[in-house]
């Protein structure tokens, strides 16, 4: 079955009308993950854009067609650990235990519980939609924010120009936890993403599966909504967001034969407007080094 | 009935928790609680206990993992102390406001700073507005019995609240004494398997657990929570009776009284100082002082009516806190006891006593000095200076 | 109610020994209570604990300030001011030593001193200086506070036959001197 | 839990749904002549406003389409045009 057929046939588990921004990558990722995982799923969605967009419900109604809980910003993997172990204890291992969490809840304050759940190889699929910041609250920087980015807590000032640090590259860190499955994905590469969600769900029956997905954010990044997929695609093509996966056979990299430059990627994106030549070069070097490392690991 | 064993307070908590057949246990070691989780780990690893044991990386996760397991329909157990409780504060508060029933042992400990690992009840007092039921134990036997009763109370349909079973760090957690440990079949008879359905996540009955909720609805949830606390006061008494009828041990419910009937002066104690207090009452009576004791067994819900009734016709009282209320220059339970007694200043001579902080001893002599002080001021209603049990 | 304070060094088994006494007391129908010293225990550091044995229920949970019995696991501790502090008049001192009461600076108000070479017994029988089980034999000989059969049985249950042997030998070899 | 006892906050009274169609300023309009039925628009639509029809074709629904324009931008055949809402058809 082609991924288009999968998506065409699968029921949408998310409310048709949710308050995610026009062109939101997170909404696309959430709908896609739940279309693949289906009705027999329990999901944890910590505070962040998706939870803020109403999918954990309002008043007495639900924003999804499946059971959902909004864990704390920093305990999604721990909460789902208890849930997952209870479902296994009850012999209902057919139920998918899934998290869809932003980068703040994943790479920052949620990292401790995430790392511990991964180390224990708890049975769940943890999907991080990485839009590089706290977008739900007006784009404050996170540890996955790209160097130089203009955010509300790393403004472009007369003395300091945007974020001063390179991003934390979480997916590789997660892959070193001895987990069942780890992959990066992008909504621009939908066939690849759907396949990885399927693999991740299968792996989650045996242990921890982690999926780190690039989540284009027109609002926070300041570009036109229709460019969302284009931005995600360029991030992949310039090796800022390489696509790879780790399974029992090791690391596998989607090689980019002719990468575009970081300079091409950042063009037209508002949060990068202020970047200096040096900053662009610095991001380029980080991307090249990361890609080279992944290539070696995938050999 | 039961079997006589010799246990520390922590091992008593572990044995009792195991008898309640928890589906899942998650706890992180911290002084002076560590041996609770060590003991349970030993039971699970030796096949004596069929529970999922999750070796978490922090108390925050301990509380979160058990929260997830309750959302999966399970009965759970955890234990902590002081800084660990502070770290788990975020999921801790959520536990009660989601109305998730469970039991957590708390080996009470002083909060830093100054740096300390020793006894004190400041940790429990810090979280008393977190919506949990709080009970304090005085003996290892009581730890066992209250953990078992705790599940019964927590899972009561009128209550549905988490229960903290508190006992003094070291003075109880590391105290070794004989305990009558109920048999498994006896506990099974008293405590049926957990059956909660108000909060269980299940694809067969999909709902949003904890949707975004606006203020007007929030008020309803909070009122319902307070109503449940109020209802718990009755259920505590009923469960105490039911437990006593089966096991032969009655504790008196939310408070217990010792020689208060004809007393002029009353000391109010919390937790592990109570036994010493009873000895002090006996010694004071030998001196001709009509002394009595009220043991505050539950601090949440606060048994205000029971205290008021117990204090009827008395002349003076002092509340001994192993913690402080920053801002009142007294102990916190003194403030609450006083609040429970209408016109306290007109009716009673009273003062707050603070002692036993950071592992300092609360001795017989200290409590005796309080009783003598009460006896001196008993005819002069009103608040007296706070007494500090200084140790030089 | 008898109040006992035990002194030893981290690693000598003060806590385990005391818990065995409580078990023996409970097995014999008495009440027992042990509260360890709450310090940062390290191997070699001075440690102590509070033990109570009673026919009645033991309610107080506090330190022992005026012990009737002192159990000293290591005679190098007798120089510390805390060791003999508060001993009741006519009280009993049980000490692991090969020295004389004079050398041990037994306080003047003590009534009896029981001396045993628990270290020697432990090293010979167990192969290490873990004098706690031998000291229990001496404690029992001098105090008779718990049923000796229950005590030896509890020692064997906790530490094996060799330790029971150590306790029994110490029981035989303990010299009790009335002062 | 239909009576909502205000014990545990639970949402089970149906689906929370916003009228996101009202957000739309531009409306995607598909030119069926140009469409090759590749399904890219369906794959990339964040709102799932594009559905597969029984004859293996694709159709834009407007009940919740926010008008983000991704479908038009991604369509390799240029078969989708963004048209101002309320403007001339």
TrEMBL record, chain A:
GO terms for molecular function: oxidoreductase activity; thiamine pyrophosphate binding. The keyword Nucleus does not apply. Keywords: Oxidoreductase. Gene3D superfamilies: 3.40.50.970. It comes from the Bacteria. Pfam families: TPP_enzyme_C. Residues 92-213 form the Thiamine pyrophosphate enzyme TPP-binding domain. PANTHER family: 2-OXOACID OXIDOREDUCTASE (FERREDOXIN), PYRUVATE SYNTHASE SUBUNIT PORB. This is Thiamine pyrophosphate-dependent enzyme. It comes from Hominiventricola filiformis.
From TrEMBL, chain B:
It comes from Hominiventricola filiformis. SUPFAM superfamilies: Thiamin diphosphate-binding fold (THDP-binding), TK C-terminal domain-like. This is Phenylglyoxylate dehydrogenase. Residues 16-239 form the Pyruvate flavodoxin/ferredoxin oxidoreductase pyrimidine binding domain. Keywords: Oxidoreductase. Belongs to the pyruvate:ferredoxin/flavodoxin oxidoreductase family. It comes from the Bacteria. One of its GO terms (biological process) is response to oxidative stress.
From TrEMBL, chain C:
Keywords: Oxidoreductase. Residues 10-172 form the Pyruvate/ketoisovalerate oxidoreductase catalytic domain. One of its GO terms (molecular function) is oxidoreductase activity, acting on the aldehyde or oxo group of donors, iron-sulfur protein as acceptor. Signal peptide: none annotated. It comes from the Bacteria. The keyword Transport does not apply. Pfam families: POR (PF01558). PANTHER family: PYRUVATE SYNTHASE SUBUNIT PORC (PTHR43366). This is 2-oxoacid:acceptor oxidoreductase family protein.
From TrEMBL, chain D:
GO terms for molecular function: 4 iron, 4 sulfur cluster binding; metal ion binding; oxidoreductase activity, acting on the aldehyde or oxo group of donors, iron-sulfur protein as acceptor. Residues 26-55, 56-85 form the 4Fe-4S ferredoxin-type domain. SUPFAM superfamilies: 4Fe-4S ferredoxins (SSF54862). Its cofactor is [4Fe-4S] cluster. Keywords: 4Fe-4S, Iron, Iron-sulfur, Metal-binding, Repeat. InterPro entries: 4Fe4S_Fe-S-bd, 4Fe4S_Fe_S_CS, PorD_KorD. It comes from the Bacteria. Coiled coil: none annotated. Gene3D superfamilies: 3.30.70.20. This is 4Fe-4S binding protein. It comes from Hominiventricola filiformis.
């Amino acid at each position: 079955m082609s991924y288009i057929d999968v998506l065409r046939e699968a029921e949408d588990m998310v409310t048709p009308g949710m308050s995610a921004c026009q062109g939101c990558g997170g909404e696309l990722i959430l709908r896609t993950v739940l279309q693949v995982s289906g009705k027999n799923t329990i999901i944890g969605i910590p505070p962040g854009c998706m939870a803020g967009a109403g999918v954990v419900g309002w008043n007495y109604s639900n924003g999804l067609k499946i059971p959902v809980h909004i864990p704390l910003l920093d305990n999604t993997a721990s909460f789902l650990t208890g849930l997952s172990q209870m479902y296994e204890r009850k012999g209902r291992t057919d139920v998918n235990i899934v998290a869809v969490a932003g980068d703040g809840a994943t790479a920052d304050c949620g990292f401790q519980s995430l790392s511990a759940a991964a180390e224990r190889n708890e049975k769940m699929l943890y999907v991080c939609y990485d839009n590089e910041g706290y977008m739900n609250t007006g784009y404050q920087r996170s540890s996955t924010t790209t160097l130089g980015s203009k955010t509300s807590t790393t403004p472009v000032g007369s003395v300091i120009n945007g974020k001063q640090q390179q991003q934390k590259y979480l997916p590789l860190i997660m892959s070193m936890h001895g987990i069942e499955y780890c992959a990066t994905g992008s909504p621009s590469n939908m066939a690849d993403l759907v396949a990885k969600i399927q693999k991740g769900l299968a792996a989650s029956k045996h242990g921890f599966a982690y999926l780190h997905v690039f989540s284009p954010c027109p609002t926070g990044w300041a570009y036109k909504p229709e460019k969302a997929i284009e931005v995600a695609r360029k991030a992949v093509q310039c090796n800022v967001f390489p696509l790879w996966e780790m399974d029992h056979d090791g690391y596998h990299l989607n090689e980019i034969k002719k990468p575009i430059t970081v300079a091409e990627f950042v063009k037209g994106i508002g949060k990068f407007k202020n970047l200096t030549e040096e900053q662009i070069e610095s991001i380029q070097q980080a991307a090249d080094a990361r890609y080279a490392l992944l290539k070696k690991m995938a050999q | 009935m039961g079997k006589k064993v010799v246990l520390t307070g922590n091992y008593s908590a572990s044995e009792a928790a195991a008898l309640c057949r928890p589906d899942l246990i998650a706890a992180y070691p911290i002084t002076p609680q560590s041996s609770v989780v060590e003991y349970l780990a030993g039971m699970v690893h030796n096949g004596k206990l069929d529970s999922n044991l999750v070796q978490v990386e922090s108390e925050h996760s301990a509380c979160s993992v058990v929260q997830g397991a309750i959302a999966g329909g399970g009965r759970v157990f955890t234990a902590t102390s002081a800084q660990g409780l502070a770290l788990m504060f975020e999921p801790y508060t959520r536990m009660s406001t989601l109305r998730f029933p469970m039991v957590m042992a708390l080996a009470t400990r002083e909060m830093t700073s100054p740096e300390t690992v020793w006894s004190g009840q400041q940790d429990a007092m810090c979280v008393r507005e977190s919506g949990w039921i709080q009970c304090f134990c005085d003996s290892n036997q009581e730890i066992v019995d209250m953990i078992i009763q705790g599940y019964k109370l927590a899972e009561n349909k009128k209550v549905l609240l988490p229960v903290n079973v508190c006992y003094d760090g070291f003075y109880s957690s590391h105290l070794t004494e004989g305990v009558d440990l109920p048999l498994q079949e006896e506990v099974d008879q008293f405590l049926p398997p957990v059956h909660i359905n108000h909060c269980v996540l299940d694809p067969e009955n999909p709902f949003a657990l904890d949707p975004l909720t606006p203020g007007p609805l929030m008020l309803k949830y909070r009122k319902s929570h307070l109503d449940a606390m109020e209802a718990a006061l009755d259920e505590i008494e009923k469960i105490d009776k039911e437990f006593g009828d089966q096991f032969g041990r009655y504790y008196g419910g939310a408070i217990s009284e010792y020689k208060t009937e004809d007393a002029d002066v009353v000391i109010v104690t919390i937790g592990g100082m109570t036994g010493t207090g009873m000895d002090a009452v006996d010694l004071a009576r030998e001196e001709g002082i009509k002394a009595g004791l009220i043991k505050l067994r539950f601090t949440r819900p606060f048994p205000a009516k029971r205290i008021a009734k117990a204090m009827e016709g008395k002349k003076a009282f002092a509340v001994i806190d192993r913690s402080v209320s920053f801002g009142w220059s007294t102990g916190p339970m003194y403030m609450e006891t006083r609040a429970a007694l209408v016109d306290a200043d007109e009716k009673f001579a009273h003062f707050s006593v603070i002692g036993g902080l950071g592992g300092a001893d609360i001795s017989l002599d200290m409590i005796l000095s309080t009783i003598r002080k009460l006896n001196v001021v008993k005819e002069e209603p009103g608040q007296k200076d706070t007494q500090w049990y200084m140790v030089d | 109610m008898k109040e006992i304070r035990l002194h030893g060094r981290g690693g000598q088994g003060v806590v385990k020994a005391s818990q065995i006494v409580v078990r023996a007391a409970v097995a014999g129908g008495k009440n027992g209570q042990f509260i360890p010293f709450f310090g940062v225990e390290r191997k070699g550091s001075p440690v102590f604990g509070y033990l109570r044995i009673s026919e009645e229920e033991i309610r107080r949970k506090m330190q022992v300030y005026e012990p009737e019995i002192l159990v000293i696991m290591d005679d190098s501790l007798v120089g510390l001011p805390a060791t003999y502090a508060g001993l009741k008049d006519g009280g009993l001192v049980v000490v692991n030593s090969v020295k004389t009461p004079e050398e041990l600076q037994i306080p003047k108000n003590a009534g009896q001193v029981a001396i045993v070479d628990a270290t020697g017994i432990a090293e010979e029988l167990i192969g290490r200086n873990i004098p706690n089980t031998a000291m229990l034999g001496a404690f029992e000989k001098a105090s008779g506070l718990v049923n000796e059969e229950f005590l030896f049985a509890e020692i064997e249950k906790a530490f094996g036959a060799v330790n029971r042997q150590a306790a029994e030998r110490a029981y035989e070899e303990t010299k009790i001197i009335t002062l | 839990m239909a009576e909502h006892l205000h014990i545990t906050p639970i949402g089970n009274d149906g689906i929370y749904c916003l009228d996101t169609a009202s957000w739309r300023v531009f409306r995607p309009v598909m030119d069926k002549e140009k469409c090759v039925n590749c399904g890219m628009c369906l794959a990339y639509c964040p709102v799932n406003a594009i559905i597969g029809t029984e004859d293996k074709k694709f159709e834009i629904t407007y009940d919740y389409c926010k008008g983000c324009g991704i479908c038009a931008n991604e369509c390799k055949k240029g078969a989708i045009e963004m048209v101002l809402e309320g403007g001339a058809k």
